[in-house]
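Usage

Read records sequentially. Each one opens with the input sequence:
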Amino acid sequence: MVLAAFLAAGLGYFLQGFLQLRNALISLTIVPAGLLAWVATVYGFEKAAADVPLLLLSLALIGSFFGLGWWVGVRDATRQSNRKLALNTGSNHG
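and closes with the structure output:
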């Protein structure tokens, strides 16, 4: 579980640079839904229906760490942007 939480936070940090939050959450939801569809085709609908609560629980737990990684990424990007702006503000060169 710790490894999955670490990977979810890293994925949130990585995706915040490329996608908006809504699009990242949609793409993050597609993967477990595809896994559930695969389970339904291989093992039948009854097995997939039994795994829906587990899917929702994992999305809730992993989603919070994804959001944490997203928040840290936004904070880091804001800090870097402010640092570049502060360096260029007082410059009279060129």
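Summary fields computed downstream for this record:
- The helical segments are 2-15, 21-43, 45-89.
- The chain has a mean pLDDT of 81.
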